[in-house]
Design a protein that fits this description.
By secondary structure, the chain is of the alpha/beta class. Helix content is 42%, strand content 16%. The chain folds into two domains: 6-176, Rossmann fold (3-Layer(aba) Sandwich), CATH 3.40.50.2000; 191-378, Rossmann fold (3-Layer(aba) Sandwich). The strands form two sheets. A six-stranded parallel beta sheet has the order 3-2-1-4-5-6, sandwiched between helices. Strand 5 (131-137), helix 6 and strand 6 form a beta-alpha-beta unit. The radius of gyration is 22 Å and the shape is elongated.
């Protein structure tokens, strides 16, 4: 991935304005139907990329012959492995000019970024893509100065913070005459991943065909979003004792403190420990779950893609933006957040406030939602 620096950004912004004197803007009406489309999303967050998969599906539903190229991180290439909506995936290396060269080779009619990044937009502009769409946040002052400096050179699409992100993302296709309300996520895993997971179950004497599995993900990409692992353990013990559910814990290398504490805090069961797996195997493993319980983090959206029920504990983020909502989904938040606290994800988190929000969610509230969810699933 390209490492951000103020100097790089300044050079790109200046280059864009110089090139604009030659090529004009990237605000022209796109070719309909487009032959080639580029979607850039330079994020290492797997949850963010999963939220973009409805864009890929909507494009292919409307224009099945259009070739779609996605540009992103190496990790997210694995997340999208097997996705037939994506014709080509370009891994972004730490070279601006190499990426611009690769984008020129694609020869796209239309480009878009969902990250409100001057880096993404600048590179598509310098690659000569004739029509490029970017988001313009309408209800908050979140854009950087470098983004605002070039924003008017692109097709601007309104974006509203506080609304469901997957639905907002779909707006980026509106210049292509695509309007979709379908926000289902789309992920796949390999046969190798599936076989590895089933071997894990067999090696651990878990009857995955007949016994229900509750998967717990106590970590999160950001520490301030983490509900205490000890409380997740209380919920897991309860599910095992009352429903005889199998319990599994998942997590990546950065979650070892939380997964270890979760295992240590359990009183009634030794769980299946499935940590530090490949992303392919993680997708396969989550697909075998009856329910996944987690913080607002990537595994939740993997579960959603495979129709696995979810229970999400939300602290300092807006529960209307990310967690899935439906009969098979539950969200638990603290009850007394003030307006200032709710704006933390816009204005920057006060860590003490964020910690109070997530820790004020009581175990009893999570258990009550878990009971309600399991009742719904078993009805």
């Amino acid at each position: 991935m390209i490492k951000y620096s103020l100097l790089k950004n300044l050079i790109l912004v200046i280059s864009v304005h110089i090139y604009a004197l030659i090529r004009g803007t990237a605000k022209g009406e796109p070719k309909i139907p487009p032959e080639k489309v580029v979607i850039m999303f330079l994020t290492t967050n797997i949850g963010d990329m999963i939220f973009a998969t409805p864009i890929f599906r909507a494009l292919k539903v409307k224009y099945p012959q259009t070739k779609l190229t996605v540009v992103g991180s190496a990790k997210n290439k694995i997340i999208l492995e097997g996705n037939k909506d994506v014709d080509d995936y370009v891994v972004c290396k730490d070279s601006i000019w190499e990426l611009i060269k690769n984008l020129r080779a694609v020869g796209a009619d239309y480009g878009a970024t969902v990250s409100s990044s001057s880096l993404d937009a600048s590179m598509m502009f310098l690659a000569g893509i004739p029509s490029v769409a970017v988001f313009s946040v309408e209800n908050a002052d979140t854009h950087t100065r470098s983004y605002r400096a070039i924003q008017n050179l692109f097709i601007q699409i309104p974006y509203f913070i506080g609304k469901y992100v997957a639905q907002e993302y779909l707006r980026i296709l509106s210049p292509l005459e695509i309007k979709s309300e379908e926000t289902k996520k789309h992920l796949y895993f390999t046969n190798e991943g599936k076989n590895s997971v089933e071997k894990f179950f067999l090696d651990n004497n878990f009857d995955f065909k007949n016994r229900k599995l509750a998967i717990i993900s106590p970590g999160a990409g950001t520490k301030i979003k983490q509900w205490p692992a000890e409380r997740f353990a209380e919920v897991a013990d309860y599910l095992y004792e009352k429903y005889n559910m199998g319990i599994a814990v998942i997590g990546g290398p950065g979650d070892r403190e939380e997964t270890d504490l979760f295992v240590k805090s359990l009183k009634k069961i030794q769980p299946l420990i499935y940590v530090d797996s490949s992303l392919d195997e993680l997708k396969a493993f989550i697909s075998y779950g009856h329910v996944l319980m987690a913080n607002d983090s990537g595994p939740v959206y993997i579960a959603e893609a495979f129709d696995v029920a979810t229970l999400v504990v939300v602290g300092p983020t807006d529960e209307n933006e990310h967690p899935p909502q439906g009969e098979r989904n539950r969200i638990v938040t603290c009850e007394d957040r003030g307006e200032a606290e709710l704006k933390g994800h816009l204005e920057g988190f006060d860590e003490s406030v964020a910690e109070r929000q997530i820790k004020s969610v009581e175990t009893g509230a999570v258990l009550a939602e878990a009971e309600d969810l399991l009742y719904t699933l078993n009805s």
